[in-house]
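Figure S4 source data
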Amino acid sequence: MTATSLADHGLVLRKRKTRWYTSNLSPKTVDELTFFGRNEAGFANWWNVTLPKTDYWHAHQVLGRAYAFELLDLLNNPESEFPEHILSYIVGAQLRWQGKDPCGGAVVHGFHEVLSEYLATGTANR
């Protein structure tokens, strides 16, 4: 289909350029993510989070934001390797875990704040 025929069907091509800077310390594999772990048998734990020893909601939320930036660094690192469905694995693990957060899921909330901003705008403010 040509651009003209796509427009005739109500389709419009949207382009969004994003820039994401990573350092040489950015994760290159899921095993380098601080919220990722493995059990004794080597099976993946996609949300292996140690909570702050406080009931201060904002501390939990900021931790979730930091985890999201780690994930975005991994996803945008040209040297990285990760499974195609990484986000679905993480979200599934978060759903099973969420009740453990004494601040009502603030870690997960912070994580998804960053990802939502990135999906909507192509960037996220650290």
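Figure S5 source data
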Amino acid sequence: MSRTISLTVYCKPQPQGSARMVPVKGYARPFITSDNKGLKSFRQEVSKAALLARSEAGASDVIFGKHEPVEMVATFYFLRPPSIPKKRIRHVVKPDVSKLVRSAEDSLTGIIYADDAQIVKIRAEKHYGAPERVELTVREFGL
């Protein structure tokens, strides 16, 4: 039987975005930050939901230890703006699904798995739906 953990986070999904460097007076190294202002709160919400799911699963440390391959299924739901045509049934505008996945997988690092490099398979989708949310499932990758 394979180990699986699932969680749903009710908030607007945020993409990882690009990093930007901000020079800090008096320091040799610049400060690196994300260009997405909503990213930090999104990642905190995902991390809190992951900690709760891990606790409910009876674990107190990462579910999948170092070097254990895992697969992730991520489904992102966004509110459908009233201004878009009814015939558009898929969410084909920004944010990119790859950047959404990056923000979600980074949020689970150190909580569900030791490192997001352990993810060997990903299935991700974007949809319109209410409420806005992200549904994540991580399971051990079986051969």
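The chain has a mean pLDDT of 90. The CA atoms of residues 74 and 136 lie 5 Å apart.
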